[in-house]
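pasting for ref. prot 1 ->
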Amino acid sequence: MDWPKSLIRQISTRRVIFFLGSGVSATSKTTEGRTPKTWKSFILEAKQLLASNEDRNLVAKYVNENKLLLALELIKKNADETEYKSFLDEEYLTQAYIPSKIHETILKLDSRIVITTNFDKIYERYCAHGNNPGYKVITYYSGDLVTEIRSDNRLILKAHGSIDEVNKMIFTMSGYHEAKRDHPNFYEVLKALFLTNTIVFLGCKMDDPDVLLILEEVKNISKNTVPHYVLSTNGSYNFIEKEMFKKAYGFNVLEYGDSYDALEPALQELFELVQEERSLGTDPV
């Protein structure tokens, strides 16, 4: 993979923030070989919590139309609250997912701040394992957000909340609106981070309305020509989409291979290039 030299330099001096999506968690497995559900499989299984055939059919219709937030809205609204919480705990809390080599390499790249929209605790548990450097976990509703951003601490920012507090997980369209209404400071901080750092999106589909809005605002108010990056498989986005991403949102697509299996060796190559750059004396730490 032809990694941009400017990106290698930025990572080596810790001016890059990694943004982890569900695709990163999906590389984990239990000892029995179980992997986290995809969004669609999660929703289709969760719809069994609904008592009404009409509701279940409507969820299936929303999934077929890729209206996943509406499907989740319907499930959250009409499912039994206790059963719904138990279902979420089973998926995001109690399963003993083993971190993958991708988690390991992300940690070794040693960004001071990592942002994730994942509810699970796979990456943060890995960061707390053994002699790894300590990371503080900060949610979008944390009162210590600004103080921690200005500190020297390594941080994991959970932009959609955590399984630790199910009622504050941003899982639906109404959840997005409520979070923006009740916690506007978080989105201002997120915008500032996007303005002052290069963001590398890993395992993300670029359809998160919050992320796209922030990228668009940052693109409009900044004359900075240094792009953000999203890593994807070959052909995930066509030429028109790539041009739109670049012009409207200020990020470039980096393709690492024909399948998701190619991401692990690509990131390992990136780590080796960053280590080489740091060995030349650019590492400020």
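and prot 2 ->
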Amino acid sequence: MLHRRQFILTSAAMLLVAPAQARSDVFVPPRKPRRLHLLATADGETFRATYWADGRYIPEALVEVSNLLRDRNTGEMCDVDPQLLDFLWQVQHRLDTPAPFHVTSGYRSEKTNARLVRRGRAVSRSYHTLGRAADLWLPGRSLEQIRRAAEHLDCGGVGYYPKSGFVHLDSGPSRCWQS
């Protein structure tokens, strides 16, 4: 006959061992799909779709979001870094809002970037030219809220531009700055 303490310890040990003895054909649900909602402020074009599901990125969605984030000046586009999308998804998820990110700048061609440099902007080595950055804001959330959420995640670059009305997010090394 087991004493109460022995029963509890034995039961706990059995619970710890049970998962190791589980059948291999038991269904394990896939990780949660990742959806993004983006709006290009230049023309109102939107992207609202799942870009990652069942452990993989969805090629058609990546093409669609790359098109939305294209250089609006030249029409050029490049493959957007999926890690940037994951960063945006995490920020949007953390802020818990159905509102779309309003993207003011995504991919930037070398031609557009060179023009900005000639105008005196400090953009010479920009992650935008690699398809790894987006400048954005979010209705219903302050730029400060976006900045704090992104900085808390510690998974990319976070530039805070309150005078210009956007937050810069990129999939480069973790760092923060303000202009």
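The CA atoms of residues 117 and 123 lie 6 Å apart.
The chain has five helices and eight strands.
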